[in-house]
Amino acid sequence: MPIFEYHCSKCDKDFEVLVFGKEKVACPTCNGKKVKKLLSTVSYKSDGEFTSSQGSACSGCSATSCSTCGH
Ligand SMILES: [Zn+2]
Fold this sequence. Notes:
By secondary structure, the protein is mainly beta. The chain is 0% helix and 21% strand. The chain has no helices and three strands. The N and C termini lie far apart (41 Å). The model has no long low-confidence stretch (mean pLDDT 76). The structure holds zinc ion. Zinc ion is lined by residues 8, 10-11, 13, 27, 29-30, 32. Zinc ion (ZN) binds next to loops.
């Protein structure tokens, strides 16, 4: 079953919902419809820690992918 993560802009909370078809998603806390679909997967940890152990992959820039500095 498809589980999607949403963010409610009204009460500033993230929540996961099962979405069936074209069912409208409402926030379970405030029942508001001002929700934004998040692109993160269900396995994503919301504590803000990244799983990358290498840190920056490029010595020329701070980005993890070097699409900006051309390395
Ligand atoms: Zn809400």
